[in-house]
Amino acid sequence: MLTNKLGFEGKKILQKVIKAANQMGVNTYLVGGTVRDLYLNKTNYDLDIAIEGNAQEFANFLNPVLGGDIRTYERFLSATITLPSFFVLDITTTRKEIYLNYGSLPIVEPGNIYDDLKRRDFSINSLAIKLNNQDKEMIIDPFNGLNDLDKGLIKVLHNESFREDPTRILRAARLLTRLKFNLEENTEKTLTKSIKYINRISGTRLKNEYKKIVKEDNTLQILHLVDAWGVTPYVFPGIKLNYLNPKSIGFIKTWCRNRKEIETWLILLMLIYWQCSPKIDYIFEVPFDFSKKEKLCLEWMVENRKVIKRLIQENINFSFIQLHRLMYNVPEEVETFLLSLLGEKREFLIKEIKKARQGVYLPITGRDLLKYGFRPGPIIGKILNNLEQEVLEGRINTREEALNWLLEMRDNYAE
Ligand code: CTP
Question: The whole model's pTM is what?
């Protein structure tokens, strides 16, 4: 029985799923990537579960027994339960999907398990194991997916598949690389013809697919594969991927491995444009929906490109004040990006950058300046900036020294 391969913890979860499904009187199945990976003996902590019934109701009924974090998605008839023990349950209502516009999300309506397997991307993912009721443990394989798993083939279920959902092109690249599979002949033909539809994917979905590529072990290999298919101009306009340095990618991945809050994908995107684009401004043409913070990182790179280049060339001679100007208050992604460019020399700068990113304590404030007769306006910011420089260079340490400096300078700032 394939489900025996789930291991102790996985099987315990599955028993609770089956019990809840029996109590609610619904048919339940393990589906998609979970079945594929069980068959291939690959560890997968994502349990894809399909219910011939209401997935949200089922998830709400099941979760108190599991004690996880639950999220429900009305539009997709689905719910996710995240457990403290690595496992994530993706629970969906078995459904039919109707594509009105190529590239957009489909209209979804409930259907049976066969409808559900029919709407999927590849034969190797159109697999289900029945978990309860009649034919328990039966493998449902309407498209010969097990056979394709044996042969190591990625095959679409019909010729419109990539056109209806062009994100599948990127999914194919991920799976091909991860599993070391090949494209079935006809699938390769329809894939090649469908590349142009990538520009119909919304910015948010495209960004999500790119994030998944970055999470894979073989990111660079996947990027080269989709590059060979002609995908690059649609996702990363203006770049020549051959210039991407594997060492910098390696550094970014290792650095971010235990820092979950850092957006690894964003750092990699900055690196791609830094190393592979004749003009880094092209980064603003990447068709992702960037958040405010993400834009801030890109703008930092573009605006500071000359200083960054100098820092890479002569980091030892870079003064702390220059570093402070460059790094003050920047997101951690910016710091990691910079470190990835510094190579062997980075050890020296890590501590300095940390200090430079923090604020500098100023012994007097804007309010003090008003008390000493300065009028509100840009002049206050200018004086505080100059004061910051004095503090950074060690000429002013105390409030008294700052006030003396201010009195001496007052005439220079007279309006
Ligand atoms: N799926 C699909 N078309 C898509 C996305 C997903 O048909 N554009 C189907 C596939 O059958 C897939 C399942 O939904 O197996 C679950 O999707 P997801 O969790 O993203 O993929 P997995 O196959 O589990 O892959 P991974 O191992 O990368 O998580």
Answer: 0.86
| Residue of minimum CA distance from atom 19 in ligand 1 | 33
| DSSP-assigned states of every residue in 323-384 | HHHHHTT--HHHHHHHHHHHGGGHHHHHHHHHHHHS----SS-HHHHHHTTPPSSHHHHHHH
Pick from 278, 284, 291, 274: nearest CA to 339:
274
Q: Is 205 in the same domain as 240?
A: no
Q: Which domain holds residue 409?
A: 366-413
Q: Best of 87, 121, 202, 213 to mutate for ligand 1, by most ligand atoms within 8 A of CB?
A: 121
Closest approach atom of ligand 1 to CA 121? 7
**Phi/psi at 71 (5° precision):** -135, 135
- Examine the domain organization and report whether 376 and 271 are in the same domain: no
Residues 196 and 303 in one domain: no
CA of 171 to the centre of ligand 1 (A): 8
Q: What mean pLDDT value characterizes the chain? A: 90
**Residues near 204 by Cβ (< 8 Å), separated by ≥ 6?**
288, 289
Q: 3-class SS at 168?
A: helix
Q: How do residues 260-315 score in pLDDT, each as one tens digit?
A: 889 999 999 999 999 999 899 999 999 999 999 999 999 999 999 998 888 888 76
Paired with 31 in beta bridges are 128
Statement to judge: residues 21 and 43 lie in one domain: yes
Same domain, 109 and 161: no
The model's confidence at residue 409, banded by pLDDT at 50, 70 and 90, is: confident
Average pLDDT rounded to a whole number, residues 363-386: 84
Determine the pLDDT at residue 184. Answer: 98
Q: Which tens digits make up the pLDDT trace of 116-139?
A: 999 999 999 999 999 998 888 899
Instruction: Report residues whose beta carbon is within 6 angstroms of any ligand 1 atom.
Output: 32-33, 46, 48, 120-121, 125, 165, 167-168, 171
- Give the closest residue to 105 by CA, choosing from 52, 167, 16: 167
